[in-house]
Amino acid sequence: MIYIHIPFCHRKCNYCAFYSAVTWEGHDAYVEAVCRELNMWSYKMEQPVRTVYMGGGTPTVLDTMQLGKIVECIKSHYDVGELEEVTIEANPEDLTSGYLERLRGLAFFNRISIGIQSFSDDDLRLLNRRHNARQARMAVENAYKAGFENISVDLIYGLPNQSAEGWQANLDLVSQLPVTHLSAYALTVEPGTILASQVERGTVEPGGEEMALKHYGLLKHWAEKEGFLQYEISNFCKPGFRAIHNSRYWNRTPYLGIGAAAHSFDGTHRRWNVADWKEYVEGAMAGRIAHEEEELTLKDAYNEYLMVSLRTVDGIDKSCLDAPFALRLEKEIARYVDAGWVEDTPTHYRPTAEGLLHADGMAAELFVE
């Protein structure tokens, strides 16, 4: 698995807490730095690469010649003969017919994830998104016409002033489009974001937990009606269209992260690159990558596995637990089994539909201190 972070954006969204930079300078230098880092780590990748995910930021801020340079670097230094899924994140305003045709012409990406967030112009203005509702619809249609058959869209619910009817209208529009995967997230007010400042000043009032739960209920009902299978709290797909790359994060598959602020995991260590694209480029050109690293203890690995697995419908695989943790969990999780939040099967502890709503809370209570 390879993740490549492209930190550039046209503008900063109000709710975004991820590392990104609004700049038109340095794109070519950054692409060169990414290629140098890919080259640096290629000797460690002993197995064929099965998934590649290019996220951001907004990867489609780069032109297709710049993306093509990264693609050729991957093909030159890694075994890509067994690729299953190659995803690129995109914003609607970038996805013109011409851009998509050139993107498909790279003969590499077979999945596209479009950050729509809402099909309402009022919502988009509140979020400081650059596209409008018409562009959002056209982006999906253009991607399909260009030959993308695996199209994911992102939506946000629980927005300020977003009614239940407004959220339902978003879902109904997804039904009308050739979408195979939906990631739907409840709005969270992250510290340090523009949205957090707006809330603190009182210029924006969050939708609140009650409204978010109502929207989530509508989401679940819509998914069942439209044949979208829920496989994680925020992720729904048509049969056969689970996000392979993201699903492997949740079962702790090792992966290589490339780019500024990108994270890597080798099974026992986590590594994260400096969250500054200029410093990243400078280091890469000098043959080094500024980064930090930590070794996970058995306790850390156990807690991390609980946290991610309880957010999925597959739940906790008992065979993945070391004996001391397995015995402890058997005792501690019994109260959630009794409450109907977890199903205890011979092989797994699986959260029920009700349990998914309490996944984070359950994990926190089950952590080993």
Short summary of the structure?
The protein has 369 residues and is α/β, with parallel strands linked by helices. Helix content is 41%, strand content 19%.
Descriptive report:
This protein has 369 residues and is of the alpha/beta class. It has helices at 27-41, 64-77, 97-105, 121-127, 133-145, 164-175, 194-201, 209-226, 244-250, 277-285, 298-309, 323-332, 334-338, 353-356, 359-366, and strands at residues 2-6, 51-56, 85-90, 111-117, 151-157, 181-186, 229-232, 235-237, 256-258, 263-265, 269-273, 291-295, 316-317, 342-344, 348-351. The chain has a 9-stranded mixed sheet with strand order 7-8-6-5-4-3-2-1-9, covered by helices on one side. A hairpin with a 3-residue loop joins strand 10 (263-265) and strand 11 (269-273). The longest helix has 18 residues, at 209-226. The radius of gyration is 21 Å and the shape is globular.
Secondary-structure map:
Blueprint (H helix, E strand, L loop, with lengths): L1 E5 L20 H15 L9 E6 L7 H14 L7 E6 L6 H9 L5 E7 L3 H7 L5 H13 L5 E7 L6 H12 L5 E6 L7 H8 L7 H18 L2 E4 L2 E3 L6 H7 L5 E3 L4 E3 L3 E5 L3 H9 L5 E5 L2 H12 L6 E2 L5 H10 L1 H5 L3 E3 L3 E4 L1 H4 L2 H8 L3
β-sheet strand percentage? 15-25%
Poorly predicted regions are: none
- The tally of strands reads 15
Instruction: Characterize the main sheet.
Output: 9 strands, mixed
Distance between the termini: 31 Å
Q: Give me the Rg, rounded.
A: 21 Å
Q: Kindly report the spatial arrangement of strands forming the biggest sheet.
A: 7-8-6-5-4-3-2-1-9
